[in-house]
Design goal:
Helix content of chain B: over 70%
Order of helices and strands of chain B: HHHHHHHHHHHHH
Strand content of chain B: under 5%
Radius of gyration of chain B: 25 Å
Distance between the termini of chain A: 50 Å
Number of strands of chain A: 2
CATH superfamily of one domain in chain B: MetI-like
CATH topology of one domain in chain B: MetI-like fold
Strand content of chain A: under 5%
Number of domains of chain A: 1
Structural class of chain B: mainly alpha
Helix content of chain A: 55-70%
Oligomer: heterodimer
Shape of chain A: flat
CATH architecture of one domain in chain B: Orthogonal Bundle
Largest interface: A-B, 33 and 43 residues
Number of strands of chain B: 0
C-alpha cells in the first residue's frame, strides 16, 4: 500500500510502483531535445532576430550586385557624354536623370558603388592582414617588444589619418592607390590594438597553457588558438572598417583631393553636382543617398554582428 | 593611497607623455622633410629659370646645395624656430604668416563647435536618460544613431539647400556675423553632439540605478542637486577622454566645412594648396595641425591623470 500525506489542504498518495527502477527502454535523461548547432548557425539565428539587420544585409547584397553587374548591363558608360540631354530629370531611359554633361547618373552611381565598395573591402582586407600580424606578434611576444611596438603605434595614431592621406596625395597624386594607402596607413592600428589585447588575455588562459604543455609550437598556438579565438572581435572590427574607408574616400573625393574627376565615385559625383544645388538638387541627392544607405547598412550589420557573435551579450536580454 | 607616491607617479606619467608627444611631432617633421625630398617637381620646374648661375645662387640661398643630412638639420632648426618656409604660389608669403592669418578663423569656429557639442550633447543625453516619456527618449536616441552614420559634409549640403537656397534665411559664404556661424557649426558639431549625448545617456542610465543615488534621493535631496552634484561627475571622465578625438575631428572636419562655406581657415587653405601643388604650404600646415592635435591630446591626457585617480600611470 501507498503512503498518504497532506499538503496545502490536499491529500497525495505515494504508490509503491513509483519507487521501482525504470525499465531500460524508458531511460532517456541523456536525450538531447535541442538540435545541436554550430557556432556560426547560432550566431546567424541571433543575427536574424533583428529585422533591420536582415534588411541591411539584403540592401548591401543588392548594392554589391549592382556594383558588379550594373555597369556591364547598362547601355551607357560612366563617361559617355551627350550634350543634347544635359540635366535631364529621371525618366524611363535615364532612371536617375542625367548630369551637367549628359551622362547617365544611374550608371555613374553603380560605377561609384564599385569604387566605394572596392576601396572599403580592399582597405578592410589590408588592415586585417597587417593588423592581425602586428597585433598578434606584439601581444604574443609581450614584454619589451610589445612595449616598443605599441609605442610606435601610439605615435602613428596620434596624427589624424587625413593628414597622412594628404601627404601621400602630394607624392603619388590623386588616385585610387593614394586614397587606399592613405586610409590604410593609420586604420590598421585599431585592428592591431584589438588583436593585441585579445591575444594578451587569451595567452594566459588554461587552454593556451594546455596547448603548450602538449608540445604545440609557438606558431601553432598563435594561429590556431589565440588568433582563432579572437575571430569575433576581428570580424566585428572589420565590418566597421569598411564604412569608415568608404566614408574617407567619399570625404576626400568630395574635397576634390580623392579620386580624380572623369572617374565616378560617390564623393566626386557629389562634389561635381554641388554647384548645381540650387537648380538641380536631385543630382546631389543620388550620390549622397547612396553613401548614406551604404553606411547605414554596414554600420547596422556591424552592430548586430557584434551582438550575434558574442553569446554572453545576449544572456540577459 | 598616500598622496606623495601618487604625486610622484603622476609626475613620471606626465614626463613620459610629454616625451612621447615631442617624439611624435619630431617623427612627423622628419616624415615631412623626407617627403619634400622625394616630391616630384622642384621649385625650378615652374619658374623657368634657365640660367645655371641663378639656380646656383638660389640653391645656395635655400641650402639646397648642401648634403641631405645638413639640410635635414637646418630644416629641423628652422621649424623649431617657427619658420616653415615660403609658399611656392603666393610669392613672398611665409607659411608661418599664413598660419597666423588662418588659424584664428579655424580656432574660432572650432571653439564654438566644441562648446556647442559638449553643451548640447550633455543636455540631450541628460534629457534622454531622465525623461519619463518614451517618445522623447526614443527620438533623442534615434537622432544620435543617425548622427553617427551621417557624414558631416552631407549634412552641410542639406542645411545649405534648406536654409540658404530654399528659405534664404542664412548666408552661405564667409564667417562675419553670428548668422554665418549657424550652419558651419551645426554641420561640424552634429557628430560630436550625437556621440556625447549617446555616451551621457548610457552612463547616466547606469549611474542613477546605483545605491548612492537612491541614498541621496531618500535623504531628500532635489533631483537637480542629485544630477548636478552626484550623477554628472561620472560623465566627466568619458567626456574629457573624448575631448582629444573630438578636437582632431573638429580640425579635420573643418577641411570640408570651410570649403563648402568659403571660410578662410586652415582647412580650406590646405585643400587649395594640395590642388595647387603648393608643397611648402601643405607640409607646413600638416606639421602645424599635427603638432596642435598632439599637444591637445597631451593636455587631455594630463587632465585625465589629474581627474581620475584610477588611471594607469
Amino acid at each position: 500500500m501507498g503512503y498518504a500525506y497532506e499538503a496545502e489542504g490536499k491529500t497525495y498518495t505515494l504508490e509503491d510502483e513509483m519507487f521501482l527502477p525504470l525499465p531500460e527502454a524508458d531511460k532517456d535523461s541523456e536525450f538531447i531535445a535541442m538540435q545541436s548547432r554550430t557556432y556560426a548557425a547560432d550566431a546567424w539565428i541571433r543575427f536574424k532576430k533583428s529585422r533591420l539587420a536582415v534588411l541591411s544585409l539584403v540592401i548591401l547584397g543588392v548594392i554589391v550586385l549592382f556594383a558588379i553587374f550594373g555597369p556591364i548591363l547598362s547601355p551607357y558608360t560612366y563617361d559617355q557624354q551627350n550634350f543634347e540631354i544635359r540635366n535631364a530629370m529621371p525618366s524611363a531611359h535615364y532612371l536617375f536623370g542625367t548630369d551637367n554633361f549628359g551622362r547617365d547618373i544611374f550608371t555613374r552611381v553603380m560605377y561609384g558603388a564599385r569604387i566605394s565598395l572596392g576601396i572599403g573591402f580592399a582597405a578592410a582586407t589590408i588592415n586585417l592582414i597587417i593588423g592581425v600580424v602586428y597585433g598578434g606578434v606584439s601581444g604574443f611576444l609581450g614584454g619589451r617588444t610589445d612595449m616598443v611596438m605599441m609605442r610606435i603605434v601610439d605615435m602613428l595614431y596620434a596624427i589624424p589619418s587625413l593628414l597622412y592621406v594628404i601627404l601621400i596625395m602630394l607624392v603619388f597624386g590623386a588616385n585610387m592607390f593614394s586614397v587606399l594607402t592613405g586610409i590604410c596607413i593609420a586604420s590598421w592600428i585599431g585592428m592591431a590594438r584589438i588583436v593585441r589585447s585579445q591575444v594578451l588575455s587569451l595567452k594566459e588562459q588554461e587552454f593556451a597553457m594546455a596547448a603548450k604543455v602538449l608540445g604545440a609550437g609557438r606558431m601553432r598556438i598563435l594561429l590556431k588558438h589565440l588568433i582563432l579565438n579572437s575571430m569575433n572581435a576581428i570580424i566585428v572590427t572589420m565590418t566597421f572598417m569598411i564604412p569608415n574607408a568608404i566614408f574617407t574616400e567619399a570625404y576626400l573625393s568630395f574635397l576634390g583631393v580623392g579620386i580624380t574627376v572623369p572617374k565616378a565615385s560617390w564623393g566626386t559625383m557629389a562634389q561635381e553636382s554641388k554647384s548645381l544645388i540650387d537648380s538641380y538638387p536631385i543630382q546631389v541627392l543620388w550620390p549622397l543617398a547612396a553613401i548614406c544607405i551604404t553606411m547605414f547598412a554596414l554600420n547596422f550589420i556591424g552592430d548586430r554582428l557584434g551582438d550575434a557573435l558574442d553569446p554572453k551579450k545576449h544572456r540577459g536580454s | 593611497m598616500d598622496s606623495i607616491r601618487r604625486r610622484s607617479t603622476m609626475f613620471k606619467y606626465a614626463v613620459k607623455r610629454i616625451l612621447t608627444g615631442l617624439l611624435t611631432v619630431f617623427v612627423l617633421i622628419t616624415l615631412v622633410f623626407m617627403l619634400m625630398k622625394v616630391l616630384p617637381g622642384g621649385p625650378f620646374d615652374s619658374d623657368r629659370v634657365t640660367d645655371q648661375r641663378v639656380i646656383q645662387i638660389i640653391e645656395a640661398r635655400y641650402n639646397l646645395d648642401k648634403p641631405v643630412m645638413v639640410q635635414y638639420l637646418l630644416y629641423l632648426q628652422s621649424v623649431l624656430r617657427g619658420d616653415l618656409g615660403e609658399s611656392f604660389k603666393k610669392v613672398g608669403t611665409s607659411v608661418t604668416e599664413l598660419i597666423g592669418n588662418l588659424a584664428p578663423v579655424t580656432f574660432r569656429l572650432g571653439m564654438v563647435s566644441l562648446v556647442v557639442s559638449v553643451g548640447l550633447g550633455l543636455l540631450l543625453g541628460i534629457i534622454a536618460a531622465l525623461s519619463k516619456r518614451p517618445s522623447v527618449q526614443a527620438s533623442i536616441v534615434a537622432m544620435a544613431t543617425i548622427g553617427i552614420s551621417i557624414p558631416g559634409f552631407l549634412l552641410a549640403l542639406f542645411l545649405m539647400y534648406l536654409f540658404a537656397v530654399k528659405l534664404g534665411l542664412l548666408p552661405i559664404i564667409g564667417l562675419s556675423t553670428w548668422k554665418h556661424y549657424v550652419m558651419p557649426t551645426a554641420a561640424l558639431s552634429f557628430y560630436p553632439v550625437a556621440f556625447i549625448s549617446r555616451m551621457t545617456r548610457s552612463v547616466l542610465t547606469e549611474v542613477i540605478k546605483q545605491d548612492y543615488i537612491v541614498m541621496a534621493k531618500s535623504k531628500g535631496l532635489a533631483w537637480r542637486t542629485i544630477i548636478w552634484r552626484h550623477a554628472l561627475k561620472n560623465v566627466l571622465i568619458p567626456i574629457v577622454t573624448y575631448l582629444g578625438p573630438m578636437i582632431a575631428y573638429l580640425m579635420t572636419g573643418s577641411f570640408v566645412i570651410e570649403n563648402l562655406f568659403a571660410i578662410p581657415g586652415i582647412g580650406r587653405e590646405l585643400i587649395n594648396s594640395i590642388q595647387g601643388r603648393d608643397a611648402p604650404v601643405v607640409l607646413g600646415l600638416t606639421i602645424f595641425l599635427g603638432a596642435f592635435i598632439v599637444a591637445m591630446n597631451l593636455i587631455v591626457d594630463l587632465m585625465l591623470g589629474l581627474i581620475d585617480p584610477r588611471i594607469k600611470v
